[in-house]
Amino acid sequence: MSRPTDHINLDLWNLHEDVCFGHSNGMIIWQPRILAWFTDRYFTHTPLPGKYAGMTEPAIYRDLGCSNRLYFYNDAFRQVDHPKVRRYDVQSDSTHITHVIETPHGTLTEKVRITPNSWYLIEEKWWIETQDDMRLFTWLLDNSTWTWDQTVFDRVYAEWGRLGAPTMYMPRINVQDLYINTMGVEHTVYALYEWEDLVADYFRALHGNHMRMIDVINASPIRIINYGDNLHCSSLSPKLYEKYVLPAYMERGDKLHKGGKWICSHWDGWVRALLPYARISALDGIEAITPWPQGDVDLEEVKDALGDEIFLLDGIPAIYFDQTFSTDTLAESTEKVIKLFAPKLVLGISDEMSSQGDIERIRLVGRIVDDYNASVAAAAGN
């Protein structure tokens, strides 16, 4: 029998914000990240299975009785280039594309290759490969700003309604930007030590650009902010974190908190060496920490690092949604995460359920969460 505290009966926008801002009276929210389950099927033109065929994504979340972390609102923030900058693409053949940015001071290019295996493009030439490229990109960052597009916000809301609070993720922080967006890991490692002054100026420009974005964020209705950084210690050492990431996080966090925002950062993969920074980085929560047997930390280590101050977002290993593992294992993991972290918990999947995952296991976790929330409400006399 359905209860008032079950997800299917709640305004999940309100519940999401109430959990994050400490107004949920101990209740938690279930936000499984199942994007890959959809997108891999879309890419291969494979129909959704069974009753889900023909259903929209929001309808599937409603049917499953869970919330979604709605990062689609990110597109409401638009970067505005200097008026003399021109961006365009050149496709040389069926698989190769060159992205071009023309500026008054020179041209930047990125070359990518389309793969038959996924939506993601293979980098063949990064935006920044020379010192002149970095100087030009620094100029680009210094001479761009951000604006808000209300029509995008309205469109996303019309599609997703109140299945979760509006959320967004900021562009990647300094080192992660070079690693993932503009330079690649190998070139970045050399640049950090051989072009130190040039890199410092690039990071200055990037940080200034992001702080201008925060002005727009703080004026927006979006209250839950993510740093989409994909931090992991296989490439980001504690030394690099302390030198580059931590100071930028502290300045970002101060400005966002003054704007009434709630902040988390995406740390996944191998994170043990970075966990000591969890409570000193001006964060309210950390998303996607991946526990053993998928990552390099167990839940007890994560709890020790986060303490009673920092939220965990996610927490259930994604592989437990595959049929390789029993439903008992999934249930035990879910109950352990709740016991350790609630109420400072936005329960989800670390990092995402694979396209081979069993979608019905989403319901299993949802029943556990709904039972927990009902018990919390009963104990409070609600």
* Strand elements, count: 15
Low-confidence stretches: none
Please tell me the total number of domains.
2
Percent helix: 40-55%
CATH class of the largest domain: Alpha Beta
Task: Characterize the main sheet.
Answer: 7 strands, parallel
Global Rg? 21 Å
Shape: globular
CATH architecture term of the largest domain = Alpha-Beta Barrel
SSE order, as H and E? HEHHEEEEEHEHEHHHEHEEHEEHEEH
CATH topology-level name of the largest domain: TIM Barrel
User: Into which percentage range does the β-strand content fall?
Assistant: 15-25%
Distance between the termini: 17 Å
The number of helical runs is 12
The helix/strand class is alpha/beta
- Average pLDDT rating: 97
Strand order of the largest sheet: 1-14-12-11-10-9-8
Structure commentary:
Helix 8 runs parallel beside helix 9 (238-258). This protein has helices at 12-20, 35-43, 57-64, 131-142, 150-160, 174-182, 185-194, 196-218, 238-258, 299-306, 327-341, 361-379; strands at 29-30, 77-80, 86-91, 96-103, 106-114, 121-125, 145-148, 167-170, 224-231, 262-267, 285-287, 311-313, 316-317, 345-347, 349-350. 40% of the residues lie in helices and 18% in strands. The strands form four sheets. Strands 1-14-12-11-10-9-8 form a seven-stranded parallel β-sheet. It has a four-stranded antiparallel β-sheet with strand order 3-4-5-6. The model has no long low-confidence stretch (mean pLDDT 97). With 382 residues, the protein is of the alpha/beta class. The chain is globular. The protein starts with 11 loop residues before the first helix and ends with a helix.
